[in-house]
Amino acid sequence: MGFWSKLVILTLAVLAFFYVKTNFFDTPHVKVEKKLVAEEQVVEPPQKAEPVKKSATKTKEKTAPKTYVTVYFLGMDKNDTGVFKKVQREVPAGKSKLKFALSQLVAGPSEYEKKLGVYSEVPKSVQILGVVEGNKKVIIDISGNIQTGGGADSLYSRLKQVIRTALANNPSNKPIYLYIDGKQAEVLGGEGIMISQPLSENSLDG
User: Fold this and answer.
1) 148-203 pLDDT, tens per residue?
2) Based on the domain organization, do 108 and 182 belong to the same domain?
Protein backbone atom coordinates (compact mmCIF):
# COMPACT_ATOMS: atom_id res chain seq x y z
CA MET A 1 0.00 0.00 0.00
CA GLY A 2 1.43 3.39 -1.01
CA PHE A 3 2.12 6.37 1.25
CA TRP A 4 -0.86 8.38 -0.01
CA SER A 5 -3.20 5.47 0.45
CA LYS A 6 -2.09 5.11 4.08
CA LEU A 7 -2.51 8.88 4.65
CA VAL A 8 -6.06 8.81 3.28
CA ILE A 9 -6.98 5.83 5.48
CA LEU A 10 -5.46 7.52 8.55
CA THR A 11 -7.34 10.77 7.83
CA LEU A 12 -10.64 8.91 7.44
CA ALA A 13 -10.00 7.05 10.67
CA VAL A 14 -9.39 10.32 12.58
CA LEU A 15 -12.52 11.88 11.14
CA ALA A 16 -14.52 8.78 12.00
CA PHE A 17 -13.20 8.91 15.61
CA PHE A 18 -14.28 12.56 16.16
CA TYR A 19 -17.68 11.88 14.54
CA VAL A 20 -18.38 8.97 16.84
CA LYS A 21 -17.19 10.91 19.95
CA THR A 22 -19.32 13.96 19.15
CA ASN A 23 -22.52 12.12 18.33
CA PHE A 24 -22.42 9.23 20.79
CA PHE A 25 -20.20 10.05 23.77
CA ASP A 26 -21.06 13.75 24.30
CA THR A 27 -24.86 13.37 23.95
CA PRO A 28 -25.52 11.77 27.39
CA HIS A 29 -23.67 14.64 29.09
CA VAL A 30 -25.91 17.21 27.36
CA LYS A 31 -29.06 15.35 28.46
CA VAL A 32 -27.90 15.24 32.10
CA GLU A 33 -27.34 19.00 32.15
CA LYS A 34 -30.90 19.61 30.93
CA LYS A 35 -32.22 17.28 33.61
CA LEU A 36 -30.40 19.16 36.37
CA VAL A 37 -31.78 22.48 35.14
CA ALA A 38 -35.36 21.08 35.23
CA GLU A 39 -34.94 19.86 38.80
CA GLU A 40 -33.79 23.27 39.97
CA GLN A 41 -36.90 24.88 38.54
CA VAL A 42 -39.10 22.39 40.34
CA VAL A 43 -37.71 23.22 43.79
CA GLU A 44 -38.20 26.98 43.42
CA PRO A 45 -40.95 28.43 45.68
CA PRO A 46 -44.30 28.74 43.86
CA GLN A 47 -44.84 32.27 42.58
CA LYS A 48 -48.47 32.33 43.80
CA ALA A 49 -47.66 31.35 47.38
CA GLU A 50 -47.37 34.94 48.67
CA PRO A 51 -50.56 36.31 47.07
CA VAL A 52 -52.56 33.37 48.49
CA LYS A 53 -51.18 34.07 51.94
CA LYS A 54 -52.13 37.74 51.77
CA SER A 55 -55.61 36.87 50.54
CA ALA A 56 -56.12 34.44 53.42
CA THR A 57 -55.01 37.13 55.89
CA LYS A 58 -57.46 39.67 54.50
CA THR A 59 -60.30 37.16 54.68
CA LYS A 60 -59.47 36.42 58.30
CA GLU A 61 -59.44 40.12 59.17
CA LYS A 62 -62.87 40.63 57.64
CA THR A 63 -64.40 37.78 59.66
CA ALA A 64 -65.76 39.31 62.87
CA PRO A 65 -65.51 37.20 66.05
CA LYS A 66 -68.75 35.56 67.12
CA THR A 67 -70.57 36.88 70.18
CA TYR A 68 -72.72 34.75 72.47
CA VAL A 69 -75.23 35.31 75.24
CA THR A 70 -76.07 33.06 78.16
CA VAL A 71 -79.71 32.11 78.69
CA TYR A 72 -80.95 30.37 81.83
CA PHE A 73 -83.39 27.49 81.56
CA LEU A 74 -84.15 24.61 83.92
CA GLY A 75 -83.38 20.91 84.11
CA MET A 76 -82.46 18.00 86.36
CA ASP A 77 -79.03 16.93 87.52
CA LYS A 78 -77.81 13.32 87.83
CA ASN A 79 -79.54 13.08 91.20
CA ASP A 80 -82.88 14.19 89.72
CA THR A 81 -82.63 17.52 91.52
CA GLY A 82 -83.91 20.63 89.77
CA VAL A 83 -81.12 22.96 88.61
CA PHE A 84 -80.66 25.94 86.31
CA LYS A 85 -79.29 25.10 82.88
CA LYS A 86 -77.17 27.62 80.97
CA VAL A 87 -77.32 27.59 77.18
CA GLN A 88 -75.47 29.68 74.62
CA ARG A 89 -76.98 31.63 71.74
CA GLU A 90 -75.04 33.38 68.98
CA VAL A 91 -75.94 37.06 68.80
CA PRO A 92 -76.76 38.46 65.33
CA ALA A 93 -74.58 41.38 64.27
CA GLY A 94 -75.79 44.72 65.60
CA LYS A 95 -78.15 43.25 68.21
CA SER A 96 -78.19 44.23 71.89
CA LYS A 97 -76.95 41.30 73.98
CA LEU A 98 -79.50 41.92 76.73
CA LYS A 99 -82.49 42.30 74.40
CA PHE A 100 -81.50 39.25 72.39
CA ALA A 101 -80.92 37.12 75.49
CA LEU A 102 -84.36 37.98 76.89
CA SER A 103 -86.04 37.25 73.57
CA GLN A 104 -84.35 33.84 73.54
CA LEU A 105 -85.49 33.21 77.11
CA VAL A 106 -89.11 33.84 76.15
CA ALA A 107 -88.74 31.69 73.01
CA GLY A 108 -87.73 28.77 75.19
CA PRO A 109 -85.26 25.92 74.70
CA SER A 110 -84.56 24.46 71.27
CA GLU A 111 -85.78 21.01 70.23
CA TYR A 112 -82.31 19.61 70.78
CA GLU A 113 -82.16 21.08 74.28
CA LYS A 114 -85.60 19.70 75.09
CA LYS A 115 -84.36 16.21 74.22
CA LEU A 116 -81.66 16.72 76.85
CA GLY A 117 -84.30 17.50 79.46
CA VAL A 118 -84.01 21.29 79.37
CA TYR A 119 -87.26 23.18 79.98
CA SER A 120 -88.53 26.63 81.02
CA GLU A 121 -91.09 27.93 83.51
CA VAL A 122 -91.50 31.18 81.57
CA PRO A 123 -94.86 30.93 79.74
CA LYS A 124 -94.73 31.18 75.96
CA SER A 125 -97.31 33.96 76.09
CA VAL A 126 -94.98 36.27 78.04
CA GLN A 127 -93.75 39.31 76.11
CA ILE A 128 -90.76 41.57 76.57
CA LEU A 129 -92.49 44.94 76.33
CA GLY A 130 -89.28 46.94 76.30
CA VAL A 131 -85.63 47.08 77.30
CA VAL A 132 -84.27 50.56 78.01
CA GLU A 133 -80.52 50.71 78.45
CA GLY A 134 -80.08 54.21 79.85
CA ASN A 135 -77.03 56.12 81.02
CA LYS A 136 -77.50 55.24 84.68
CA LYS A 137 -79.78 52.21 84.76
CA VAL A 138 -81.43 49.50 82.69
CA ILE A 139 -85.18 48.88 82.71
CA ILE A 140 -86.72 45.57 81.61
CA ASP A 141 -90.48 45.76 81.11
CA ILE A 142 -92.30 42.40 80.98
CA SER A 143 -95.98 41.62 80.39
CA GLY A 144 -98.10 40.91 83.47
CA ASN A 145 -98.87 37.31 82.51
CA ILE A 146 -95.45 36.29 83.77
CA GLN A 147 -97.18 36.22 87.17
CA THR A 148 -100.01 33.89 86.17
CA GLY A 149 -100.20 30.10 86.00
CA GLY A 150 -98.37 27.57 88.13
CA GLY A 151 -97.71 27.77 91.83
CA ALA A 152 -95.26 29.65 94.00
CA ASP A 153 -92.36 27.39 93.01
CA SER A 154 -93.02 27.92 89.29
CA LEU A 155 -93.24 31.70 89.71
CA TYR A 156 -90.04 31.78 91.75
CA SER A 157 -88.20 29.70 89.13
CA ARG A 158 -89.31 31.81 86.15
CA LEU A 159 -88.41 35.04 87.91
CA LYS A 160 -85.00 33.58 88.71
CA GLN A 161 -84.59 32.72 85.02
CA VAL A 162 -85.30 36.32 84.10
CA ILE A 163 -82.98 37.73 86.77
CA ARG A 164 -80.06 35.44 85.99
CA THR A 165 -80.37 35.92 82.24
CA ALA A 166 -80.48 39.69 82.68
CA LEU A 167 -77.47 39.81 85.01
CA ALA A 168 -75.41 37.53 82.75
CA ASN A 169 -75.89 39.78 79.71
CA ASN A 170 -75.40 43.25 81.12
CA PRO A 171 -72.10 44.45 79.56
CA SER A 172 -72.39 47.92 81.13
CA ASN A 173 -72.90 46.52 84.66
CA LYS A 174 -75.50 49.21 85.26
CA PRO A 175 -78.25 48.50 87.82
CA ILE A 176 -81.20 46.63 86.30
CA TYR A 177 -84.81 47.21 87.31
CA LEU A 178 -87.72 44.90 86.52
CA TYR A 179 -91.02 46.46 85.47
CA ILE A 180 -94.34 44.65 85.01
CA ASP A 181 -96.72 46.27 82.51
CA GLY A 182 -94.89 49.59 82.79
CA LYS A 183 -94.62 49.72 86.61
CA GLN A 184 -91.67 48.82 88.79
CA ALA A 185 -92.30 45.43 90.38
CA GLU A 186 -92.49 45.13 94.17
CA VAL A 187 -94.76 42.18 94.94
CA LEU A 188 -95.34 39.44 92.36
CA GLY A 189 -98.18 36.94 91.97
CA GLY A 190 -101.00 35.89 94.26
CA GLU A 191 -98.42 34.32 96.56
CA GLY A 192 -96.96 37.77 97.19
CA ILE A 193 -93.32 37.11 96.32
CA MET A 194 -91.33 40.17 97.31
CA ILE A 195 -88.64 41.42 94.91
CA SER A 196 -85.89 43.84 95.89
CA GLN A 197 -84.49 46.22 93.27
CA PRO A 198 -82.15 46.73 91.48
CA LEU A 199 -81.97 43.08 90.49
CA SER A 200 -79.40 40.80 92.08
CA GLU A 201 -78.97 37.13 92.82
CA ASN A 202 -80.70 37.73 96.18
CA SER A 203 -83.63 39.83 94.89
CA LEU A 204 -86.20 37.11 95.74
CA ASP A 205 -84.70 36.04 99.05
CA GLY A 206 -85.60 39.07 101.15
Assistant:
1) 888 889 999 999 999 999 999 998 899 999 999 999 999 988 778 999 999 999 99
2) yes
Numbers of helices and strands, H then E, in the chain: 6, 8
Those residues with Cβ within 8 angstroms of residue 73's Cβ, 6 or more apart along the chain or in another chain: 84, 85, 86, 87, 105, 108, 109, 113, 118, 119, 120, 161
Domains: count for the chain: 2
User: Is the separation of the CB atoms in 105 and 72 below 8 Å?
Assistant: yes
Distance CA(147)–CA(154), nearest Å, equals 10
Structure pTM?
0.69
- For residue 154, list its beta bridge partners: none
